[in-house]
Amino acid sequence: MLVRLVYASRSASPVTDEVVGSILAQSRKNNPEHGVTGVLCVCHGDVFLQVLEGGREEVNRIYSKVLRDDRHIDVTLLDYAEINQRRFSGWRMGRVDLDKVNAGIILKYSEKPRLDPFMISGRVALTLLEELGSSASIMGGS
Ligand SMILES: Cc1cc2nc3c(=O)[nH]c(=O)nc-3n(C[C@H](O)[C@H](O)[C@H](O)COP(=O)(O)O)c2cc1C
After folding, report:
1. pLDDT digit string (tens) for 90-121?
2. pLDDT at 49 over 90
3. With a threshold of 0.90, does the pTM exceed it?
4. In the predicted model, is pLDDT for residue 42 greater than 70?
5. Contacts of 16 (CB under 8 A, 6+ apart)
6. DSSP character for 31?
């Protein structure tokens, strides 16, 4: 039974390469042994948007750890669904920096060039992340 979970959160402090690097290192170490894949998107330096895919128990367990992590606040579930297949199977935890993404892609899904994940639906967030995957905007973590 596969599920996909999408959430947004606000970084507790300005997002530095060090913060993202340590989150990604933990994710890339832990996720493969639990069969979890996904993408972490850093939105304009202060908001995280993450998709997690995998077995229901494993995704729920990782999400409950993520919820307790004090590196971010306002963790908000945007979408949770049972799925037949993964869309991000190629990433232990891919990374996207929205500041480096073509503005045209963001404007397709956002009212303003600065995307606020708290203002879009889970479905739209997922479609954006998928497009980022197919436009080669997702780095590393394969
Ligand atoms: C935005 C964000 C995303 C995270 N994503 C993951 C993840 O995908 N997998 C993971 O194991 N930990 C993730 N973490 C880290 C967890 O909250 C937790 O610190 C970590 O899993 C603990 O790892 P350990 O049990 O090896 O010490 C994330 C943390 C933050 C702030």
Report:
1. 999 999 999 999 999 999 999 999 999 999 99
2. yes
3. yes
4. yes
5. none
6. H
Q: What is the pLDDT of residue 142?
A: 64
Q: Under a CB-based contact definition with an 8 Å cutoff, are residues 133 and 96 in contact?
A: no
Ligand 1 centroid to 65 CA: how many Å?
Answer: 6
Q: What pLDDT does residue 141 have?
A: 64
72 CB less than 6 Å from ligand 1?
Answer: yes
CA of 113 to the centre of ligand 1 (A): 29
Cβ neighbours of residue 12 closer than 8 Å, sequence gap 6 or more? 70, 71, 72, 73
What is the distance between the alpha carbons of residues 73 and 54, in angstroms, rounded to a whole number?
A: 24
The answer to whether residues 1 and 82 touch, using CB atoms and an 8 Å cutoff, is yes
* Residue-level pLDDT at 52: 97
Q: For residue 98, which phi and psi values (nearest 5 degrees)?
A: -60, -25
Distance, in Å, from the CA atom of 96 to the CA atom of 67, rounded to the nearest integer, reads: 21
